[in-house]
Amino acid sequence: MTENSTKEASDVGAGEGAEAGTGVTLSRRRLLGTVGAAGAAGLVVGGAGGAFGVSAAQDDAPALSTLGTTEVAFRADRRTPQAGITTPMQAHGHLVAFDLAPGAGRKTAAALMRRWSALAEKLMAGEVPADDTGVALDAGPASLSVTFGFGHSFFGRTGLTARRPLQLDPLPHFSADAIDPKRSNGDLWVQIGANDALVAFHALRALQKEAGDTARLRWQMNGFNRSPGATAHQMTTRNLMGQVDGTNNPKPSDKDFEERIFVGRDTDQQWMRGGSYVVVRRIRMLLDDWEKKSRAEQEKVIGRRKSDGAPLTGGDEHTPMDLTKNGPDGFPVIPADAHARIAAPESNQGAALLRRPFSYHDGFRDDGAPDAGLLFICWQADPLRAFTQIQRKLDRGDALSPFLRHEASGLYAVPALEPSGYAGQALLEG
Asked: What letter would DSSP give residue 18?
């Protein structure tokens, strides 16, 4: 599996306008100077990039910084998972769900996905739509990614119930659930991520406008992560509890990574081959209660040191947990109800999730408590064997559960992309 990768943004786009007197059409991201392009080289991931070009911009035009130039490929030269799954986590994100308008069926949905895919490909390449709002003018692609998914209800509305995977069956109820139906599910799901807030908002607004009368907004959530370069070296992000979050994520280098995260060839729904299923949960953190706990108490709840994410049994962040080690008191060093122990693959018959969350803060509640927490986003080949299995175990005795409230939920099928065509084409035209 070749990850949808970042690439140099030095090629000329087909954006609006031309540099006066040059006859050269410029993209939204400005042409890179040779110095700026050389600086961007260190951020390239994978082999989807193009060659450096000679700048056609004015000598006095500033080059974009490396953060602005980094580009995520919308598609590759063969069937690949969509961007936004294994793409490095971005600093800003929007999650949005739409419902098809009454009377909109399969053909209308196909036309929308065709328009959305074409628009996403242009935006991710840093190009300017014809009727652009100007929100992100002067900015580069900034690692923008757009990901499309289909919810359970989409199949009934489009006459495709026979092609709905069993993996999209509704999730069970869990004891920490306080789910708001108005902020859950939806026919269509879109994930937007970028390392610049204006670039992310620009994509959100452009996709919403492109939906027109075909689909109506159901819910939308905004998230954030630590910005690239904010730490002395690359490291796992922290959540709003101050904990290192995502240490035990499966890695593309793992021999069973694809098997765990992406749908295999043996699926009975071939349009999902190479795709993935995403569970989205808005999890409010009871931060006032959490912050009353001492650091030692917090570490026992999680099972890891707060300072560096290392397991309580010693080592560094990536040292395997020793789940058999007891302390001088005879009790496990990592408590039996510690979150990290219960969620570990070793405790769940090898089940694992690829976590790719955003934090959120939506102001303060009437009692003054922060309305803040995690937009939990996890990817897997089969939600029943991964998310549902792990969450059921957490539901039975996770020490972290009293500090969490699951307030919104969604489950979506995210098909792979072909070298040409639009997202979901094999479903809608197959």
From this structure: B
